[in-house]
Amino acid sequence: MKELAHLNKYFKKYWSKLLVGLFITIIARVLQLVMPRLVKESIVVIENFMDGQVEESAAKGLLLEYILIIVGAALLSGFFTFLMRQTIINVSRYIEYDLKNEIFDHYQFLSLNFYKKNRTGDLMNRISEDVNQVRMYSGPALMYGINTITLFACIIPIMFMTAPKLAAYTLIPLPILSVLIYYISKIIHERSTIVQQYLSTLSTFTQEVFSGVSVIKAYALEPSINNDLSTLAVEGKDKSMDLAKVNAWFFPLMVLLIGISNIFVIYIGGKQYINGEIASSGVIAEFVLYVNMLTWPVAIIGWLTSIVQRAEASQKRINEFLNETPDIKNTVFEETPIKGKIEFKNVTFTYEDTEITALDNISFTINEGETVAILGKTGSGKSTILDLIARLYDVTSGEILIDDTPIKELNINSIRQAIGAVPQDAFLFSDSIKTNIKFGKENATDEEVIEAAKNAVVHENIIGFSKGYDTVLGERGITLSGGQKQRVSIARALLKKPEIYLFDDCLSAVDTETEEDILNNLKKASKNRTTLIVSHRVSSAKNADKVLVLSNGKLLQEGNHTDLNSVEGYYKDLYYTQLSEKEN
Ligand SMILES: Nc1ncnc2c1ncn2[C@@H]1O[C@H](COP(=O)(O)OP(=O)(O)OP(=O)(O)O)[C@@H](O)[C@H]1O
User: Fold this and answer.
1) Is residue 314 lining ligand 1, measured as CB closer than 6 Å?
2) Distances (CA, A) of 336 to 312, 331, 345, 527, 573
3) What is the torsion angle, in degrees rounded to the nearest 10, for the CA atoms of residue 479, residue 513, residue 530 and residue 453?
4) Which residue's alpha carbon is at the smallest distance from atom 24 of ligand 1?
5) For the chain, which domains are there?
6) pLDDT value, residue 578
7) Which end of the chain is more exposed for a tag (fewer CB within 10 A), N or C?
8) Regarding predicted confidence, which is higher, 94 or 277?
9) 72 Cα to the center of ligand 1, angstroms
């Protein structure tokens, strides 16, 4: 229960509703007790009538009175049971809502490293499946727990007061039922976890197949994919059958044990009645009803135990993530406006997971408003520089200064708000083009969106779609070409009008002519704004104030186009190679 203590703050939050639920449950169960007692009284009345102790009309009157009370109590008990669910189960839904929000908020707060260490499926599972297990504890388990305790507390003393020996014999099979249900629930849980795992493997597999359907068709992989799928499906079916087998034991066992308890009541009660140890056969009927009322709560003890164990395990998994702290910590809480000067001082950076040193003792300065192109072979560390400026990672050694202040002494939100980043793999949400562009500035007007799209040279493409800017993208809509995606992503950054632009190889999928147009527009749009353009093409570097050439994480060359073109080296070679490619 140590892990589940995390939920206590929520129980405290909703304590008044839970207290009301507790009272309602007690009332509902007490009302339920009216029926067995009055059934016994009715039989006593019939026995007395048979013995001639009561007149027919008086007996009929009493029976009618008892029937009406039983019906009234049953209706009231039903109504209170409804209220019980409305209070306690509703509280568990509130707790589920709060817990999901808490986890989601925490996820957003964590650094990129956390997402690299953990698989998306795992993140999703903890916020959905695990929270669901925990909800079973905070709702149904709590409700049935209170229910069971109340029923036990009321029925068992009544039984012992009415007929102690009969009560003792009748209750013997019930703990056995409880233990059996506990073991069966445990096996059911183990097997259903395996079935769940198969289902999730199957859905991940099919999801990947659907996403990569073009590759599968192009390589005619359908037969082998079908084979893999049917192997997975057959294994999943076998596991489901295993689960169905134990599930099938659950109710027959319950019925068997209730039957045994009933036989005890009738046999021992019957003997006691014959011996005169109990006054009326009505007691036997009363006890049969008690046994039936107790069976479900007794069975539930086993079920509750396994629910609590499962919830504990799920909450442990949730707590593991909730206890994660972000690697990148914001220690400055007031806003720190950014102008745009960037300085790298002997920066070395090694990725924790791969232990690849992406940047090795790099130093350079970019003045406010300057445009800098970063060139270099693939894997030379260009994107890493941009990630470090956005403080997605902290440097391993050395220092990054923004506006002459160490980056760690600046508010992390202020830094990110001052940045308009266009990543290498443009990511667009399954929403309209307009919403995707407005991601950069939520309150932007339509005119501003159009202006940004024009500067990114994608406006003509957008208005070519029948729904224009309202065209929905992604799974629910159309698929943009690689170049169109990149340009929508550029429009998003331009709309933001940030102090620092970070363009990460974002023109790789557009033709050289469009690239030229975009670069000209960028020049205007990014005037007086610090701009870093990572590229493989010299065309992106020609107009830059400065060019940085990287090789294996080291700074190989630094200078402007003219400087670098006048010395032998990577830049000049690249320039002439690309020039001759263009001419050819
Ligand atoms: N998230 C990451 N985790 C671990 N290693 C990484 C990560 N990103 C990059 N690397 C490694 O760091 C090195 C530098 O990568 P980086 O992406 O900065 O290069 P790049 O110059 O931008 O390459 P490209 O031109 O292909 O985009 C590479 O060896 C890469 O494998």
Assistant:
1) no
2) 43, 12, 21, 22, 42
3) -40
4) 378
5) 3-322 (1.20.1560.10), 328-418+500-584 (3.40.50.300), 426-497 (3.40.50.300)
6) 76
7) C
8) 94
9) 74
Strand order across the 500-504 sheet: 419-422, 500-504, 530-534, 371-376, 546-551, 554-559
Whether 351 is in the pocket of ligand 1, judged by its Cβ within 6 Å, is: yes
Q: What is the ipTM of this complex?
A: 0.95
The DSSP 8-state label assigned to residue 119 in this structure reads -
To the nearest whole percent, how much of the chain has pLDDT over 90? 34
Go through 397-431 and write b for each residue having 16 or more CB atoms within 10 A of its CB, e for each that does not. Answer: ebebbbbeeebbebbbebbeebbbbbbeebebeee
Helix 164-171 × helix 142-162 angle, to 10°? 140
Q: pLDDT category, 537, cuts 50, 70, 90?
A: confident
Ligand 1 neighbourhood includes 535 CB (under 6 angstroms): no
The atom number, within ligand 1, closest to the CA of 380 reads 21
Alpha carbon distance 229, 238 (integer Å): 14
pLDDT in tens, 356-405: 999 999 999 999 999 999 998 888 999 999 999 999 999 999 999 999 99
Shortest-distance atom of ligand 1 to CA 359: 14
Amino acid at 515: E
